Fold:
Amino acid sequence: MLPEGLVFNPISLTPESLDLLNTKKFSVLEISRLFGVPPFLLGEVEKGASFASSKEAVRAFARSAIAPMCTRLEQAITRACLPQGCSLEFDLSQLLRSDPETRWGTHQIARNIGVMSVNEIRNIEGLSKLVDASANSHEPLNQSPTAAGTTPAAPKPNGHDPAPLAEPPLEDDA
Structure:
């Protein structure tokens, strides 16, 4: 029921139009394969694609397509423009970064086992260096240094603290 003077024209795609759409999609996928670019970066979003898979695809793209190009460019600039003994290296760490939870968990493990200092972790994260007094303020207690030339007392065989008690334990009057 259309108002007077209006005519209904159904919108439909002809087989030729459908074929053109499929051809465009195929072309995008071929370009993607040729240059190693994830299809979603070229505007081709597949059903079932998620943000997590997109993030991983960007990291894979950085590792497999951008990093080799950067290596070739670094070598060419080093040969052509820099004096002997000097080299150039692009920093791709921002492209290859994982999610914050994983990254901070990795930093925590590296800090706890003594592989990295607080300032090294801060440098990786682009934060300013802490002064010496506060650099160790978050040191795990089981890793704090002992007095010079001393070793911590070994626990007794029963597993109790070897330090003497300040007051003798109270006995029950039972």
Observations:
- The longest helix spans residues 51-81.
- The CA atoms of residues 120 and 129 lie 8 Å apart.
